[in-house]
Design a protein that fits this description.
Blueprint (H helix, E strand, L loop, with lengths): L41 H28 L1 H12 L5 H8 L3 H17 L2 E4 L6 E4 H6 L8 H10 L5 E8 L4 E6 L8 E4 L1 H6 L5 E4 L1 E4 L2 E4 L4 E3 L1 H18 L13 H17 L18 E8 L2 H9 L4 E4 L3 E5 L11 E7 L5 E6 L2 H15 L3 E9 L4 H13 L10 H15 L16 H4 L3 H24 L8 H6 L9
Antiparallel strand pairs: 1-2, 3-4, 3-6, 4-5, 6-9, 7-8, 10-14, 10-15, 11-12, 12-13, 13-14
């Protein structure tokens, strides 16, 4: 058995292709001293890397010692504890899995054994469970240097948890934000793999340890996609609430930290063999499953159709641009959402009517055919699940064929103001709308408890992070989300 050094030799690692080099010898030192890197911190960085490699060698020595001394017990611990979430058929698949997945899970298993695993020592009837971590560090264990012993002691205090890259610096430094404990301050962490292959916003399962006064990753890091991320956060946060964990108590196995790490790791392993797909998307207005439902009509008399639609107070539009059948406003003077859209199709004398749910489409078809009578003739219906590969490909095709952005002629500040207004309108009732990630509570209800307040603050930070990424891509200042913070009585968070 052997432990991998700091690398992203893991499942789906091909998503990470951007390389960021450390400072060159003659570059200014990142510390801001004004000196060249070679005359300032280059030697210190090289010395830290040598120390880290020395400690990784200690991990390899310890894991090999466990395999030699307790071969059967170590193998049993990994198969029965580490892989406990997998079924027999999944384990059979693992043997034939891609080499990247096999190596990643084996490396993760070996690190888990050394940090958290329990080994049965003795005959079956008198077997006693001992932490592998303790066996390594006791007298009679492998020969390790003081630095290697201190590093392995750190492993035993730090479970594998979910982190997000908040920023990438120089010198193989990244800033990581804890995704499970919103109040924990971001950490600057040494990691060659994340600095080289990660991007702000990427999420990973990893273990952070302290080495010679510097936070660093312990070894294997596991990328986490958006659907899996949501599942890990939901399950882990539920456990945090159930056990009353805090950042101070959750990072040792005896106080629940290993249990929290188990949740994260088990879900990652399950996703490797049973990938978490996109959740069912719900229509904001009705809560019904969101589908793309297109009804096609031949229009036999445009003049009569336009007259009948114009007589309806809940219809907006005209024959040139199409019509919108609107729902009643939920509040006096509030916005009226679109119930059904009637658009001019590309083919002559053809109408394409769009509904966001099956019920909306059925209601729209019944309403239009009763109103229009013999002015239209129904031709057929198309129903598309927006989560399907075909739908995603169609969205990409349409995006490529769309005309130039009408906002392109505006200044960055003017574009920001347009989006600011849109956000104010779309989120006017945000504080009083149930949100699934908050346990279907409204933000105003959630902030009345400490745990709920932390969830709302994290949700708002996620909004701001997403808006910052969009604004950067669109080359405009980001929208100010402060109005959402204030709507629930919170002060906007200071930028990280």
């Amino acid at each position: 058995m052997g432990v991998q050094a700091d690398s992203v030799s893991i499942f789906r690692a091909d998503r990470y292709s951007r390389i960021m080099d450390d400072p060159r010898r003659n570059d200014p030192c990142p510390c801001g001293s004004g000196k060249k890197y070679k005359h300032c911190h280059m030697n210190a960085a090289a010395e830290f890397e040598r120390l880290r490699e020395h400690c990784m060698d200690g991990m390899r020595i310890a894991v090999d010692w466990l395999g030699d001394t307790y071969e059967q017990a170590s193998g049993d611990a990994i198969s029965e504890q580490f892989y406990a979430a997998l079924e027999d058929e999944d384990m059979e698949k693992l043997e034939d899995s891609p080499v990247e997945l096999f190596d990643a899970t084996e490396a993760l298993a070996e690190e888990w054994l050394l940090a958290e695993g329990a080994i049965a020592i003795g005959a079956n009837g008198d077997a006693v469970e001992r932490r592998a971590h303790d066996l390594v560090l006791e007298s009679g264990g492998p020969a390790l240097s003081p630095a290697q012993r201190a590093f392995i002691e750190e492993l035993g205090r730090r479970p594998t948890l979910l982190y997000e890259i908040a920023g990438i610096g120089s010198g193989s430094r990244v800033t990581l934000r804890d995704r499970l404990f919103a109040d924990r301050p971001p950490l600057e962490v040494y990691s060659r793999s994340l600095a080289a292959h990660g991007r702000p916003g990427d999420r990973f399962l990893l273990r952070i340890v302290m080495l010679d006064g510097t936070w660093c990753t312990s070894g294997t890091v596991c990328p986490v996609g958006p659907w899996l991320q949501g599942r890990i956060e939901a399950d882990a946060r539920a456990l945090i609430v159930e056990l009353g964990l805090t950042p101070d108590t959750a990072f040792t196995p005896d106080s629940g930290g290993a249990t929290l790490g188990d949740v994260c790791r088990d879900l990652w392993l399950l996703d490797a063999f049973h990938p978490v797909g996109p959740p069912q998307i719900a229509d904001r207005a009705t809560g019904e499953p969101l589908l793309l439902v297109n009804d096609f009509y031949d229009v036999l008399n445009w003049t009569q159709l336009a007259e009948r639609l114009a007589a309806k107070p809940d219809v907006e539009g005209d024959a040139a641009d199409g019509w919108k059948w609107l729902r009643p406003a939920q509040t006096p003077g509030g916005l009226r959402s679109i119930r059904w859209a009637l658009n001019r199709a590309e083919a002559p004398d053809r109408l394409l009517c769009f509904g966001r749910t099956l019920r909306a489409a059925d209601e729209g078809r019944e309403w239009l055919e009763a109103l229009a009578g013999d002015c239209v003739r129904h031709l057929g219906r198309e129903v598309i699940d927006p989560r399907s590969p075909a739908a995603l490909e169609e969205f990409r095709r349409r995006a490529q064929s769309e005309p130039a952005d009408p906002l392109a002629t505006l200044s960055p500040e003017q574009r920001r103001d347009v989006f600011q207004e849109v956000h104010h309108k779309l989120r006017a009732r945000w504080a009083d709308e149930p949100i699934p990630v908050l346990g279907n509570r409204t933000p105003r209800e959630a902030v009345t408890t400490p745990a709920g307040r932390a969830q709302v603050e994290q949700l708002l930070r996620d909004y701001e992070a997403g808006e910052a990424r969009r604004a950067s891509a669109e080359q405009r200042p980001p929208v100010d989300m402060g109005f959402l913070w204030r709507s629930v009585g919170l002060e906007p968070a200071a930028p990280v």
